[in-house]
Specification:
The complex is a heterotrimer of chains A (about 110), B (about 170) and C (about 650). Chain B is mainly α and about 170 residues long. Chain B is built from six helices and no strands. Chain B is globular. The termini of chain B are far apart. The N terminus of chain C is likely disordered. Chain C has a two-stranded antiparallel sheet with strand order 1-2. Chain C is globular and about 110 Å long. Chain C is built from 26 helices and two strands. The chains are: A mainly alpha (about 110), B mainly alpha (about 170), C mainly alpha (about 650). Chains A and B meet through helix 1, helix 2, helix 3 and helix 4 of A and helix 1, helix 2, helix 3, helix 4 and helix 5 of B.
């Protein structure tokens, strides 16, 4: 543990910035590329986690615990969102026999 | 030593995240996502936010991912039922995704480094006691409200997923 | 500022002065708002009494007023101020406005009284009195205004009331056309007035009469700006006072009830132009070019209208052309610089022309609405009072001593002679024409045999007292009014001229020799008797009845058709204007404006048709758009 705590001494915060950005972009990529609504959901979770990671990194580097409290709240919201979102997906599946978002095209001119 | 661990964890999380997106079978996606969450939890420990790391594993890996798995199995989704976008679509998605990444990274170039390195960080900020103190003093009201959010989300989920009684 | 403070600040005479225009306004509001619930008697009484009280107040103020009286200005409140340009709602009381007040309220009272008899069977009785009171109010504001803009309120107001009263019987489209014609013609003049006011402010930095006249006194004669200002003021005056080329509305204005013709189109409103010129006589004195134009226009109008009057068969039309002609006389007087003489003629003309119009109204009343003199005749036995008073009016306008018209007309002729003999002869000829057509009218109407229908003959009766009383009062005034301003040879005191001397610069030029004046009077009286004899012989004894317009020939046809001026205006102004409007409507309105409006609508429609295709319903597409947009926004931020 003693050595692990030195991480803030060894690495600059830019590393975490880049890592979070890459994870976030992968999340966006997933949202754009996949047609399965559940995978899209998971990509969104990925994006949320990248943001969480960045918040925790800043919290540690700046010695401010408030950011970690924020992470709690984000987790709360994410959990609630997943619960409701998956329930909606189940509903959709029940109606269309599929979770493909391409089949949800009725909302247009 | 710490930097190697960081690079390893970073590599692990990026690879597993990519696998989440690119796996053909949704089931694998979920499992890779669990792996990704674990690596992120490792990052939390590296950043001396141990409590958060455990909460993260419990909530995400334990609760949310199980929910995902449960839904997947319930709907019986696998690689046979999975449909994919056309190559052109995929190309456009990769282009815009990497463009977003590049633009965000480019915008970091402009920012000034406001972190003053050198000072030995206190190790106490990530402890349960410290976080609890802050959460139940400064953020007691949002905390309570989030419980209301949970309740409503639960009620909503139940109502939505329930079969119609007719 | 509330009314209390206004009245608190002004007291005594000033308060009385404010009451003069205020009373008719109150009368207007009472008759206008509660008119329907008032009885005709009460309504007429209110209308008449308010003006009558105003007259008494004006008389009280006038008492003791002489040349030594210095004008006072009552500022009620500041109307508006723009930068250094401050206009206050103010009244100015001096010799000129005092005189006009007396004429307006005096003649106005009599005509109100007359109207209560004349209009008694009309459904719009209360409305009529409301309009009349409003007219009196605006006319009083016009003459009392302490600056050009306050006068302009009155100026516009009388135009409005004139419109309302000419079109009083609005169910007849021809009357409405006449009202519109009067309004439009007046607007042309009003524009001139308004531009003149702008230029006056530009030049003098004030529009108060006193300030403007003070600073104008130091200006060089004939400066271009002064000529421009006076010319524009004169344009305004030609509109209101029915001079060439804007006179055609006045004969048509006879469509209104006869008391209106008497009040507005003979005694008061048409003299507003004269009043305006006299008010700004300092400016006109400094612009001899303009004065010359004023004189020439006046002269041509006088001659022109008098010659038309020779061949008119409608009793009111004859009087209308005679009014135009007499107004021309006044403008000639103004043009030669005899401002007080012009005002003198305004006064006497107000008496005898109101008398003649009211007399004609009485005749029309008796004839059940018949206005054509060819179907009258022999009315003198049936309408004795009307006959006598009408005769007095005719003698007054023809200029027989000692009636009022003689003095004022004689004075104008004398002044004109000193200015330009050619003008004098033309004007003298006009005078003879006037006498001719007036006596033609008189003999055709009151002498000879009755030429109307049996029914009319049976119905003939003298008018009630409310109508004959004003006639008698005006007849007395027409008889004695001339003595207000005796010519120099008869009395070395000319009351009128010395009374107005603080306002107008004394008429320049010496008086003609006494010998000439006596000769002129003698010749004119002899001429007058010859004319009377001729017309009596022709129209009363031989009973030659004028033929219809369509049967006239030669020059008489031109006269009967009023020189075709209306037709000419119609051809060169109205028709091209309608034609251009039509073309503009077809091209500009329908294609350009409508095209633009419809085009915008169509463009939006097509644009929406194209844009809605973006809305595919494909969530992936939306997400791509979203990400690309975020990228672009961030990119823009980085680059800039």
């Amino acid at each position: 543990m003693e050595e692990l705590e030195q991480i803030v001494r060894i690495l600059p915060i830019e590393n975490y910035l880049v890592l979070s950005t890459i994870l976030f972009s992968i999340g966006v990529l997933g949202v754009l590329m996949r047609r399965n609504a559940i995978i899209i959901f998971m990509s969104i979770e990925l994006m949320l986690n990248s943001v969480n990671l960045l918040l925790v990194a800043f919290s540690t580097y700046m010695q401010n615990a408030t950011a970690q409290v924020f992470v709690f709240f984000i987790m709360v919201v994410a959990a609630a969102e997943v619960a409701v979102g998956l329930a909606i997906l189940v509903m959709i599946f029940r109606n269309t026999r599929s979770t493909d978002i391409e089949s949800l095209k009725k909302l247009k001119w | 030593m710490g930097d190697y661990i960081f690079y390893f964890l970073a590599f692990l999380s990026i690879i597993s995240a990519l696998m989440v997106v690119f796996s053909k079978n949704p089931m694998y996606s979920v499992l890779y996502l669990v792996l990704c969450f674990f690596s992120i939890a490792g990052h939390y420990i590296l950043l001396s936010a141990e409590f958060l790391a455990f909460v993260h594993i419990i909530v995400y890996a334990g609760a949310i991912m199980v929910l995902f798995l449960f839904v997947l199995m319930l709907l019986n989704l696998n690689s046979k039922t999975e449909s994919f976008k056309t190559p052109l679509w995929k190309f456009a998605a990769i282009c815009s995704g990497s463009a977003l990444m590049l633009v965000i990274l480019a915008s970091f170039k402009e920012t000034q480094n406001f972190i003053t390195p050198g000072s030995p960080p206190a190790t106490t900020i990530g402890t349960v006691k410290n976080l609890g103190t802050i959460l139940f003093n400064e953020y007691i009201l949002p905390f309570e409200i989030s419980s209301v959010l949970f309740i409503s989300a639960m009620v909503g989920a139940v109502i939505l997923a329930k079969k119609e009684l007719d | 500022m509330n009314m209390y403070t206004i009245f608190h600040q002004i007291s005594g005479n000033a308060l009385l002065l404010v009451l003069i225009p205020l009373l008719p306004l109150i009368g207007f509001f009472i008759n206008g708002i509660f008119g329907k619930s008032l009885s005709k008697t009460l309504s007429g009484a209110i209308g008449t009494l308010t003006v009558a009280i105003s007259f008494i107040i004006a008389l009280t103020l006038f008492w003791g007023l002489d040349a030594s009286f210095s004008p006072f200005v009552v500022n009620l409140f500041e109307w508006f101020s723009v930068g250094t340009f401050k206009v206050s709602m103010g009244f100015q009381y001096d010799q000129l406005s005092a005189l006009m007040l007396l004429i307006i309220t005096g003649v106005g009272t009599l005509i109100h009284l007359y109207s209560s008899g004349y209009m008694h069977n009309d459904d719009g009785f209360q409305r009529f009195f409301a309009y009349l009171n409003l007219f009196i109010f605006f006319m009083l504001v016009l003459v009392l205004g302490s600056n050009f803009l306050v006068s302009f309120i009155g100026w516009e107001g009388v135009g409005l009331c004139s419109y309302l009263l000419i079109g009083f019987w609005f169910k007849n489209p021809a009357y409405n056309d006449a009202a519109k014609k009067a309004f439009v013609m007046n607007r042309i003049g009003d524009l001139g007035f308004l531009i003149a006011v702008f230029m006056i402010f530009f030049q003098f930095n004030s529009i108060n009469y006193i300030d403007v006249m003070e600073s104008a006194k130091g200006m060089a004669s004939n400066s271009p700006i002064l000529i421009a200002i006076t010319l524009l003021l004169f344009v305004g005056a030609t509109g209101k006072s029915a001079q060439l080329p804007l006179y055609t509305w006045l004969p048509d204005a006879m469509a209104g009830p006869t008391p209106v013709s008497a009040l507005i189109h003979a005694a008061t409103m048409v003299t507003a132009g004269i009043f305006l010129v006299v008010r700004s006589n300092v400016l006109f004195s400094l612009a001899p070019y303009t004065s010359e134009i004023v004189a020439i226009v006046g002269l041509i109008t006088a001659l022109f209208a008098a010659s038309i009057g020779l061949r008119q068969n409608d009793i009111k039309k004859v009087l209308a052309y005679s009014t135009v002609s007499q107004l021309g006389y006044m403008f000639v007087a103004l043009g030669v610089g005899a401002y007080s003489t012009a005002m003198f003629h305004v006064t006497t003309h107000a008496f005898f022309k109101a008398l003649l119009f009211l007399g004609s109204g009485s005749v029309i009343h008796a004839m059940s609405g018949e206005q054509d003199i060819r179907f009258m005749g022999g009315l003198k036995k049936k309408l004795p009072i009307t006959h006598i008073t009408f005769l007095i009016g005719t003698l007054a306008i023809a200029g027989l001593p000692p009636f009022a018209g003689f003095f004022s007309k004689d004075e104008i002729l004398a002044k004109v002679f000193m200015h330009n003999p050619i003008m004098f002869w033309a004007l003298a000829f006009t005078s003879a024409l006037t006498a001719f057509y007036m006596f033609r009218l008189y003999f055709l109407t009151f002498h000879g045999n009755f030429r109307g229908t049996e029914k009319q003959a049976h119905h003939l009766h003298e008018s009630p007292l409310s109508m004959t009383l004003p006639l008698m009062v005006l007849a007395v005034a027409s008889t004695l009014g001339g003595f207000l301003g005796m010519p120099a040879i008869m009395s070395n005191y000319n009351g009128f001229e010395s009374y107005l001397s603080p306002i107008v610069s004394p008429s320049h030029g010496e008086h003609p020799s006494h010998m000439f004046e006596y000769t002129m009077m003698g010749v004119s009286v002899i001429l007058l008797f010859i004319i009377i004899g001729y017309t009596r012989n022709r129209f009363a004894t031989k009973q030659v009845i004028p033929v219809d317009v369509s049967e006239e020939s030669g020059f008489a046809k031109t006269l009967a058709n009023k020189y075709w001026v209306d037709e000419i205006y119609d051809t060169i102004i109205v028709k091209p204007m309608l034609f251009i409007s039509q073309k503009l409507h077809q091209f500009f309105e329908l294609q350009v404006i409508d095209g633009a409006v419809n085009g915008i609508g169509r463009l939006t429609n097509y644009g929406s048709q194209a844009l809605r295709l973006i809305q595919t319903g494909n969530t992936g597409m939306y997400l791509i758009f979203m990400v690309v947009s975020i990228v672009l926004i961030l990119l823009f931020n980085i680059i800039s």
